[in-house]
Design brief:
The protein contains nine helices and no strands. It starts with a helix and ends with a helix. With 195 residues, it is mostly helical. It has two domains: 50 residues, Arc Repressor Mutant, subunit A; 136 residues, Orthogonal Bundle (Tetracycline Repressor, domain 2). This is TetR family transcriptional regulator.
Length: 195
């Protein structure tokens, strides 16, 4: 019984933290804000999460998990390679725009690539390369894509997508985002499709 209550309380704090971070952003949110919103003491929050960074990290991990799940669905779909890769890229960027905590982390410089991305992001990147590699492999098997180093091709595609994250989320209006994304998809597909 106690273990269930402990897990429920920890999940509640995480859920409330997601809402508070979404409303105020990382920099303007304090542990006290989260405690008040959850109707808990500050000490209760610290019992489960040692500081704001750890709590925010858990929130972002949860978002990456959500993103990963959606991308796996696209990668496992019955579409041909070109459509699968196109849907993968569009889904990835659309979800990243909607995930406010990852978005906030990128906008406000919280994604310190020495620490933060080194842990959460590295794991996601490795998993993403495997998903894209699977799409490329199937495209080669189905004679849609040129035969080439699948691992290297997947790495280049994921790197290109990562390079667009900040501009898509921070600097550019969404209408321009869609134009740039469509153009990038065309360039990528022309580069790997079988001639």
């Amino acid at each position: 019984m106690f273990k269930k209550n402990t897990k429920d309380t920890k999940e509640l704090i995480l859920k409330i933290a997601m809402q508070v971070f979404a409303k105020y952003g990382f920099r303007k949110t304090s542990i006290n804000d989260i405690a008040q919103a959850a109707f808990k003491s500050k000490g209760s929050v610290h019992y489960y999460y040692k500081n704001k960074n750890e709590l925010f990290q858990k929130v972002v991990e949860k978002e990456f998990q959500l993103l990963r799940t959606e991308l796996e669905l696209v990668a496992k779909s019955d579409l041909n390679g070109k459509m699968k890769l196109t849907n993968y890229i569009i889904t990835r960027m659309k979800i990243l725009r909607e995930l406010s905590y990852i978005n906030d982390a990128i906008k406000n410089g919280y994604m310190d690539y020495e620490y933060f991305a080194g842990k959460i992001r590295k794991k996601f990147d490795d998993e993403e390369i495997l998903l894209v590699k699977e799409i490329i492999s199937n495209g080669i098997i189905n004679d849609e894509f040129e035969e080439r180093d699948e691992e290297q091709t997947a790495y280049v595609i994921v790197s290109a997508l990562k390079g667009l994250e900040e501009p898509l989320m921070v600097n550019i209006k969404c209408s321009e985002c869609d134009i740039n994304l469509d153009y990038m998809i065309q360039v990528l597909l022309k580069g790997i499709e079988k001639r």
